[in-house]
Design a protein that fits this description.
This protein is α/β, with parallel strands linked by helices. It has 2 domains: about 180 residues, Rossmann fold; about 170 residues, Rossmann fold. Strand 5, helix 5 and strand 6 form a beta-alpha-beta unit. The chain is globular and about 65 Å long.
Length: about 375
């Protein structure tokens, strides 16, 4: 199979879809890899590393989109990219379609076969291709909060860990998944006072056991969230419903309960955000203020530590990329129900039920859509 890796064009996005090590693994199995020039140069993967791994170098993304069978990316395709997709071409990347009707429409019209990292599952019920970036984003959320709390940034001037004789900051984490756990771990490591909320009692028991009582756990209700907002110096929104838009757990009225100079880091922004006042920002302009509360809503947070994120992402995505390239997309998806869960759009049909529901589109089961694909 001919696999292409274009350079990412989203604002301050320096990650790349495959590392040179990943390229080498595909090449040694007989596949042809083309990488856009300078796709990984900023993070220490220059063109010569890709050439040494067996790749060809393309002068532009246009050359890649026009010539390859499968495109491996990191972020969702931008309009100039999805307009270049061809019917039957495979797109393997993060998509986050539920809050993005325009991208969804573009992918439907392209006729491409679009597999979203964030909805691929595993035998434990997890999201293994989302997990490494969730780990990064959870840890970065506390770095972002700490910075935004500084007086020079318009924050309340509170140090997360405090000092002897001065109380630490109170950090509230809404959601006990991968993002939430990593945010809590970082906040505790810096000495903050941490509360984590979730709606799963088994999950809360597990968190309590894992952290040995070093943080508080609360069952997530509106009352509990409101009480925490009054106390919090920093709130991390870490809510996820796989494939669906994030629920709005912090309303505009509830935001007014927060202290002036406090911070909301909405890591759920890729799925639309879990606060009514959240809107996507960029690494170039990461924050804005509503009702005295600083909002940090960067939609590609792991792009800020692009080398670490790229290596972690390739580690997670490579096995499925190899399966698709070795077997062909139809057989790979038919053989693996967990990879099949990642199929979001196929030949003009929406095959992810939460996306179809949230956008009011017709849902077609992945199995039915696959029946229309060639067997090779």
């Amino acid at each position: 199979m001919h696999v292409g890796v274009p350079r990412e064009i989203k604002n301050h996005e320096y990650r790349v879809g495959l590392t040179p090590a990943g390229v080498r693994e595909l090449c040694r199995r007989g596949h042809r890899i083309t990488v856009e020039t300078r796709a990984g140069a900023v993070i220490g993967f220059p063109d010569e590393h890709y050439v040494a791994a067996g790749a060809n170098i393309a002068a532009s993304a246009k050359d890649i989109f026009a010539g390859v069978d499968m495109i491996i990316k990191v972020k969702e395709p931008q309009p100039v990219e999805y307009r270049q997709l061809r019917p039957g071409q495979i797109l393997y990347t993060y998509l986050h379609l539920a809050p993005d009707p325009e991208q969804t429409k573009g992918l439907i019209e392209s006729g491409a076969i679009c597999i979203a990292y964030e909805t691929v599952t595993d035998e434990f019920g997890g999201l293994p291709l989302l997990a490494p970036m969730s780990e990064v984003a959870g840890r970065m959320s506390i770095q972002a909060a700490a910075r935004a709390l500084e007086s020079s940034q318009g924050g309340s001037g509170v140090l997360l860990g405090g000092v002897p004789g001065v109380a630490p900051a109170h950090v509230t984490v809404i959601g006990g998944g991968v993002v939430g756990i990593n945010a809590a771990r970082m906040a505790l490591g810096l000495g903050a006072d941490v509360t984590i909320l979730d709606r799963s009692l088994p999950r809360l028991r597990q968190i309590d056991n894992d952290f040995e009582g070093r943080l508080r756990t609360l069952f997530s209700t509106r009352d509990a969230i409101e009480a925490e907002l009054k106390l919090a110096d920093a709130v991390v929104g870490a809510v996820l419903i796989p494939g669906a838009a994030a629920p709005k757990l912090v309303t505009r009225d509830m935001l007014k309960l927060m202290k002036p100079g406090s911070v909301l880091v909405d890591v759920a922004i890729d799925q639309g955000g879990c606060a009514e006042t959240s809107r996507a920002t960029t690494h170039h302009e990461p924050t804005y203020v509503v009702d005295g509360v600083t909002h940090y809503c960067v939609a590609n947070m792991p792009g800020g530590v692009a080398r670490t994120s790229t290596v972690a992402l390739t580690n997670a995505t490579l096995a499925h990329a190899i399966a698709i390239a070795d077997k062909g997309v139809r057989r790979a998806l038919e053989d693996d129900l967990h990879l099949r869960a990642g199929l979001n759009v196929c030949l003009g049909k929406v095959t992810c039920e939460p996306v179809a529901r949230d956008l009011g589109l017709e849902y077609v089961a992945a199995e039915a859509a696959l029946a229309e694909l060639p067997s090779i």
